[in-house]
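Q: What residues go here?
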């Protein structure tokens, strides 16, 4: 196992522990959540860039930037959009992917293009949901649902990239997201 792979697995485990903390601990704290996400994100930026898994690089770079911004005292008061932006952005990605999906049996590259476009919808969903959640424009329940969507649709691209740490993380992330969303005992709002 290379150093990049070890770094990827470290980031994966930290992300999962931190997401479970958010999902199931009633008194979660914003500084703890965003600090751990920043470290995990930077770990996965490096390990994913080493294997050219660009959707994972994009997601984690964005999460690292948001986490660092909040930790240095930045604010997201300038964010005026709501969750509708998520739906529109994801919908546009799917519209772009549909032609390649219909022709998938004729050319291999078209199927891979569709998987890549859908993977980019995951990048958008993860990033926009994280930004809106950090800006307090998205509540925790819908945040978990968008995370479930983003984790699930990224799986084919991660498989094609052989990005095993992030693939394992997204499978667990999907399960945690759905479990947290449909858990009747939701965590309190952060302090």
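A:
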């Amino acid at each position: 196992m290379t150093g990049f792979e070890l770094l990827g697995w470290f980031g994966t485990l930290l992300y999962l522990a931190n997401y479970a903390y958010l999902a199931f601990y009633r008194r979660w704290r914003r500084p703890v959540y965003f600090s751990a996400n920043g470290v995990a994100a930077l770990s996965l930026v490096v390990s994913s860039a080493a294997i050219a898994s660009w959707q994972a690089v994009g997601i984690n770079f964005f999460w690292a930037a948001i986490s660092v911004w909040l930790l240095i005292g930045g604010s997201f008061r300038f964010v005026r959009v709501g969750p509708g932006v998520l739906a529109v952005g994801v919908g546009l990605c799917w519209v772009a992917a549909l032609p390649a999906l219909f022709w998938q049996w004729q050319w291999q590259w078209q199927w891979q293009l569709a998987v890549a476009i859908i993977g980019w919808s995951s990048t958008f969903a993860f990033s926009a949901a994280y930004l809106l959640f950090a800006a307090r424009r998205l509540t925790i329940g819908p945040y978990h649902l968008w995370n479930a969507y983003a984790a699930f649709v990224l799986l084919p691209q991660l498989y094609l990239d052989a990005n095993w740490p992030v693939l394992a993380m997204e499978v667990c992330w999907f399960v945690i997201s759905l479990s947290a969303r449909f858990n009747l005992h939701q965590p309190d709002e952060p302090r």
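A: Context that may help when evaluating the design: The first helix runs from residue 3 to 24. The radius of gyration is 16 Å.
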